[in-house]
Design a protein that fits this description.
The complex is a heterodimer of chains A (147) and B (458). Chain A is mostly helical and 147 residues long. In chain A, 65% of the residues lie in helices and 0% in strands. In chain A, helix 2 runs antiparallel to helix 3. Chain B is an alpha+beta fold and 458 residues long. Helix content of chain B is 60%, strand content 11%. The chains are: A mainly alpha (147), B alpha+beta (458). Chains A and B meet through helix 4 of A and helix 9 of B.
Chain lengths: 147, 458
């Protein structure tokens, strides 16, 4: 799905930013960034639910959406009109909310990885080595389950 | 006649079983909103049949027991998450209080450092101006106060956490004693074949509460239960509870003892774990960095001050601006103070000539010099603020994640052990009908007996 085809205020504002050859208006920039941050927030809340429900497909879909949204956000932030405009004060607040949700997501993912490691050890049977779990460092150990 | 008696007996067993089952349903409905209650189900079994060759005849039904529905693994996971939540609640609460000291305000250390350097910069424009000299002393005094207040607040907070440790240990002891008493009641009931569902529910609820205070491992025996801390210190063994003890060390800091062994460093989760983590790791780490900043700053400023000349052209060799911090640096922030009160003693001159501002400029240059662990004073302070914010944000996120998981686990427990009023209503109708049907059988058998009794032998 092309994220630019969805007709949300943020994407409309982003499209106008991209199509307009003149420097982006401050209000356009603010609307686009706030809209994308709000969408990211919703997406993270949805992926938390998916993670808790062990819905791998839902989680993957949300993660894909988050990658697309963060790319869009990066594109919008690259067109920031001025550095210290006071009308952007609401952006850091929204960004902090998203940052908090990313940290919560990371914590939930760490827990899920611990569970996966446990199952992996169990499936390995008597040959399993019950050393420290590999949950704190990438990459994940090779999955013992044959496809 | 023996056939009719057997039928009567079977019908009576049906009446009795239906009545018992209805009592379980009644209890479920009554406890629908009781926290921690596990729904009860009647276990009905067919009574042993009698064999009258060639027939095998049933003898009715027996209410074998009333069992509480619970998932032990789920309960264990809830207790584990509860420990994590207790730890994070205490830690986040402590960190949020710590963070207040580092929020930007007119009196915070970062602002006071900037004001000090601004006053030195102003002095360099007119080094003989007494009011500008006084301004430097005032800014230096304010900076020392900012360090003192922050260090003092952190010490007070550590003291408060220390008191909380004592209170938490006391609450742990109350709970372990209650659990031991319940263990005794449960064992007594189970030893005589009675069900102890209500007491087990109460014990589960108490273990949940205990889990929020300290890391607990649960070992289930046949009729009893043993609780230890995660490092193996006993808390409850069957009907006996083992008290934890809080005792101060030589510096007055409370340590937790189990059976005479200091287990303070091994308590990792539960509220006690969070309190200890804040008291022994997070706050001391901030205090140490604050001391490093205060000592590094005072030494750097003193070195420049003592290398210059005062307003009267005298060398300021013995006129430190700040009282020299302790050599180890420990306690530097709390004890930082001004060493001079006479503005004329400020060494703005680098060569002793009146009007020279060379030394004031050197002092101002400290602002951007890497004098503390390879960083300028402002950058080092920003690092402390960032670190406090970062640790708080991480702990808060972890707390949110734990709450989400715990809520989900509690929902799962409710679906397994909770009372569904719809299901209970259906059960009530079912048992009522069973009771009515058994009563009808009794009535019919009674009528048949009357028929037999009234038979006339011709």
């Amino acid at each position: 799905m092309n994220p630019m085809t969805s007709n949300t205020p943020a994407r409309t504002a982003l499209a106008s930013l991209r199509n307009d050859r003149t420097p982006a208006g401050a209000e356009d920039f603010r609307l686009a960034a706030l809209g994308l941050l709000a969408e990211l927030e919703s997406s993270f809340l949805a992926s938390q639910k998916a993670l808790l429900a062990l819905d791998a497909a839902g989680l993957e879909s949300c993660t894909g959406e988050q990658i697309r949204l963060s790319e869009l956000l990066r594109a919008v932030l690259a067109q920031k009109p001025s550095a210290d405009s006071p009308q952007f004060l609401d952006l850091p607040v929204a960004a902090r909310g998203v940052l908090h949700l990313t940290l919560v997501q990371a914590s939930l993912l760490r827990r899920a990885r611990r569970s996966v490691n446990l199952v992996s050890h169990l499936l390995k049977g008597p040959g399993a080595l019950y050393g420290p779990l590999h949950s704190e460092s990438w990459p994940l150990p090779e999955c013992p389950i044959e496809p | 006649m023996s056939g009719l008696n057997a039928s009567l007996s079977a019908a009576l067993s049906g009446l009795s079983a239906a009545q018992g089952a209805l009592e379980a349903t009644t209890n479920n409905v009554a406890n629908a909103n009781t926290p921690g209650y596990s729904r009860q189900v009647p276990v009905l079994v067919s009574s042993d049949p009698i064999v009258i060759d060639p027939l095998t005849l049933g003898t009715g039904v027996t209410l074998k027991s009333i069992e509480s529905i619970r998932d032990v693994i789920l309960e264990s996971r809830i207790q584990q998450e509860t420990q994590g939540q207790g730890q994070l609640d205490a830690l986040v609460s402590a960190l949020q209080q710590t963070q207040i000291n580092f929020t930007t305000s007119s009196g915070d250390i970062g602002t006071a450092i900037s004001k000090f350097f601004n006053s030195v910069n102003q002095l360099s424009t007119n080094p003989t101006d007494l009011s500008l000299r006084q301004g430097v002393l005032t800014a230096a005094g304010n900076l020392a106060s900012a360090f003192n207040i922050t260090a003092n607040n952190l010490s007070i907070q550590r003291g408060n956490l220390d008191q909380s440790v004592v209170q938490t240990v006391s609450r742990v002891n109350i709970l372990t004693q209650q659990i031991a008493r319940l263990n005794a009641q449960i064992a007594n009931l189970q030893n005589v074949g009675e069900t102890a569902g209500t007491f087990i529910d109460q014990r589960t609820s108490l273990i949940d509460q205990l889990s929020s205070l300290v890391d607990v491992s649960v070992i289930r025996n046949e009729n009893s239960l043993t609780l230890t801390t995660s490092n193996g210190a006993p808390l409850v063994a069957g009907q006996q509870s083992f008290l934890l003890d809080a005792q101060p060390d030589a510096s007055g800091v409370q340590h937790v003892f189990a059976q005479g062994t200091d287990i303070t460093a091994e308590i990792a989760s539960g509220q006690l774990g969070g309190l200890l983590q804040a008291r022994d790791l997070q706050i001391p780490s901030i205090q140490a960095r604050l001391d490093t900043l205060a000592a590094g700053f005072a030494n750097a400023v003193n070195a420049v001050q003592t290398a210059g000349f005062d307003l009267n052209g005298n060398p300021a060799t013995l006129a430190d601006l700040f009282s020299p911090p302790p050599l180890s640096g420990v306690g530097a922030a709390a004890s930082l103070s001004l060493a001079i009160t006479d503005p004329a003693l400020l060494a703005a001159s680098s060569d002793g000539t009146v009007g020279s501002n060379g030394n004031a400029e050197v002092m101002y240059a400290i602002r951007n010099q890497a004098i503390i662990s390879g960083q300028s004073p402002t950058d080092y302070y920003s690092g402390i603020v960032f670190n406090v914010g970062n640790v708080t944000a991480d702990a808060t996120a972890e707390q949110s994640a734990t709450s989400l998981v715990l809520r989900q686990l509690n929902d799962q427990r409710s679906s397994v052990s909770g009372v569904s009023l719809d299901e209970e209503a259906a059960n009530m109708v079912r048992f009522q009908q069973a009771y009515a049907a058994s009563a009808q059988v009794v009535s019919t058998v009674n009528s048949m007996m009357q028929t037999v009794i009234n038979m006339k032998v011709s």
